[in-house]
UniProtKB/TrEMBL annotation:
SUPFAM superfamilies: Arabinanase/levansucrase/invertase
Protein name: Glycosidase
InterPro entries, per the entry: Glyco_hydro_beta-prop_sf, Mannoside_phosphorylase
CDD domains: GH130 (cd18614)
Keywords assigned: Glycosidase, Glycosyltransferase, Hydrolase, Transferase
Length: 295
């Protein structure tokens, strides 16, 4: 069975704002969480200086977003000299944890910040030191008594485990690129996983080694008690660049997602298009269930 996400007809949902110096050039990869009937979006933005900052937008229907004029999260530490990138947000015990990439001349590092209102942030700093690493996302609950998160040491998707969300150990590679496939160069987690009866549903991005790398999306299903076990993985991509504004832009041929939200029988998947715009694609839960049951 071949699944495909459907584009929202109002796409792209958000584009750069020439009058806002911090988001005048590119707006793209975003985290979205739904809480008390509101969709909260935290998105990566770049202006003339090409430094990534994080803006905030809010919506009641998940489609029409109102954004603030100023970013809510900006670089503060030497690790963030070039920017704060690619937020992924997980709610744990009423608090929202944002994993993001800190980028500087020293490399890329996974960092964490937390909030209860998306405006005021507590910074926890770099949480995996000493190694270039990105694409981090937290599981929404402990597994076997420990916190679990995805991360990416090129080219594989990894898990790491922790007792306090700050110190992480036991790095384990769970999946890598597949030769001859659409994800033959490198892969990384998309959104934080969603717990289903069948296992953890994980959105991920796969990069194909084309002259200019192509970024597409797929699903994985991981074992509920041992998420290092991959039970199922998309043979074909579920989404790929097709629209003009996905093929041409800041970085061409990119659909890159950090957010998957359950809404009215569907999964809403927010994505950055060509590192230039923010857009939405959806799929019914029913269709995903069918794929999960297929042997
Ligand atoms: C990845 C990340 C993403 C970006 C993608 C395509 O390495 O940096 O933020 O969307 O490349 O440029």
């Amino acid at each position: 069975m071949h699944m495909k996400l459907q584009r929202c007809i109002l796409n792209p949902l958000l584009s750069p704002v020439p009058q806002h110096h911090w988001e005048s050039k590119y707006v793209f990869n975003c985290a979205v969480v739904k809480k008390n009937g509101l969709f909260h979006m935290l998105y990566r933005a770049q202006g003339e200086d090409m430094v990534s900052r994080i803006g905030y937008a809010v919506s009641t229907d998940g489609i029409r977003f109102n954004r603030l004029e100023k970013p809510v999260f900006t670089p503060k530490s030497p690790w963030e000299l070039y920017g704060v990138e690619d937020p992924r947000i997980t709610e744990i015990d009423g608090k929202f944890y944002m994993m993001y990439t800190a980028y500087s001349p020293m490399g890329v590092r996974i960092s964490m910040a937390s909030t209860t209102d998306f405006i005021r942030w507590e910074r926890h700093g770099v949480i995996i030191p000493d190694i270039d690493n990105k694409d981090a996302a937290l599981f929404p609950e402990k597994i076997n008594g420990r916190y679990v998160m995805f991360h990416r040491i090129e080219p594989d998707m990894y898990l790491a485990f922790s007792d306090d969300l700050i110190h992480w150990d036991n790095f384990v590679s769970i999946a890598g690129p597949r030769e001859g496939y659409w994800d033959n160069l490198k892969i990384g987690v998309g959104a934080p996983p969603i717990k289903l009866d069948e296992g953890w549903l994980v959105l991920y991005h796969g990069v194909e080694n084309t002259p200019r790398p192509t970024y597409r999306l797929g699903f994985m299903l991981l074992d509920l008690n041992d998420p290092s076990k991959v039970l199922k993985r998309s043979e074909e991509p579920i989404f790929e660049p097709e629209e003009e504004w996905e093929i041409f832009g800041g970085v061409p041929n990119v659909v890159f997602s950090d957010a998957m939200v359950e809404h009215e029988g569907n999964y809403y998947i927010y994505y950055g298009a060509a590192d230039n715009h923010i857009a939405l694609a959806t799929i019914s839960k029913e269709e995903v269930e069918k794929w999960l049951k297929e042997r």
